[in-house]
Amino acid sequence: MKIYHPKRSRPKITVIGGGTGLPVILNSLKNKDAEVTAIVTVADDGGSSGELRKMFNTVPPGDIRNVLVALSDIPEKQKDIFQYRFKSEDKTMNGHSLGNLIILATSEMQGSIYQAIQLLAKMMYVDGHVYPASEEPLILHARYKDGTFGEGESQIGHPDKTIDYVSVSTTDPDQKTAKAGKKVVSSILDADMVVLGPGSLYTSILPSLMIPEVGQAIIDTSAQVLYISNIMTQMGETEGFSDANHVEVLCRHLNHDFIDTVLVNNAEVPKEHVAKMANDEYLFQVDHDFKKLEAKVPKIISNDFLNITEKGVYHNGDKVVEEILRAVSFNHRTLKL
């Protein structure tokens, strides 16, 4: 059992992930009394990010762009410009986000993706810290339970295959082992709480954890590690998964029961909404298995965290952050007593 120790009156919360889930939490954390750090996955190889990654052998900028916007205090009009996606008959530009191109250009000017992010964070009045999990693009590898293998973040999900294990490597044939980016490890070790998710289990959360230095830091940190369980299962990744299955996969990948708290949505997604989404990326609502969860995790927080929109089912960022801050405050108060 970890012994938590208060390090500061303003708690430091480090959030690890990618995709659409990470900005939701960061946006809600932004105006709270906490020091926020975002560690962003760099294994994306699809869409605009994937194309730019291949053209320039660069870290995919899409998730970084969304995180900068989520933590930014610039006016909404300026955010809209940064997020603008070209609609052009010219295939070279069509589909690319202006922010992705700005990140790429700044990276070339500054000589590194790390320096580029720090400069853009200042320009965008970002309240917090943003670090890429690695400063080089990573390749996500999957081993399936039938003994076959797959490669690529956008390619490993198959409806007819079950993922058994994922790992990451660099694109450099002479240096395959991925290295953590600057300040990533220290941000984990010095945190009061490390938050994982919400996000795709195999393609948003695990890619960062499978960087050896990052995985070890997660195990070694004295911070409370909190996992936000997914609301819906995902096609090609987590069909038939319960919340306990998600936790089991995370722990198995690090060969350690490292999760201290799990946030679980206990509100039911309306059946008509599930039916509407069934043929898309998502399948069904994640089942609950509290008995197995209790065997793996010391603390379970269940509540209505639903935010249903026309685009899909998401976590209610404000409600999730309320529980995160309550958990951090509780640990601090208990130890001061």
Give a summary of the structure in a few sentences.
Required for morphogenesis under gluconeogenic growth conditions. The strands form 4 sheets. The chain has a 7-stranded parallel beta sheet, sandwiched between helices.
Description:
Strands 3-2-1-7-8-10-12 form a seven-stranded parallel beta sheet, with helices on both faces. A three-stranded antiparallel beta sheet has the order 5-4-6, covered by helices on one side. A two-stranded antiparallel ribbon has the order 9-11. Helix 5 (98-110) crosses helix 6. It has helices spanning 21-29, 47-56, 62-71, 76-83, 98-110, 113-123, 184-189, 201-209, 212-220, 243-254, 271-277, 290-296, 317-336; strands at residues 12-17, 35-40, 129-132, 138-144, 149-151, 163-170, 193-196, 224-228, 232-234, 261-265, 282-285, 299-303, 306-309, 312-315. With 337 residues, the chain is an alpha/beta fold. The longest helix is centred in the C-terminal third of the chain and has 20 residues, at 317-336.
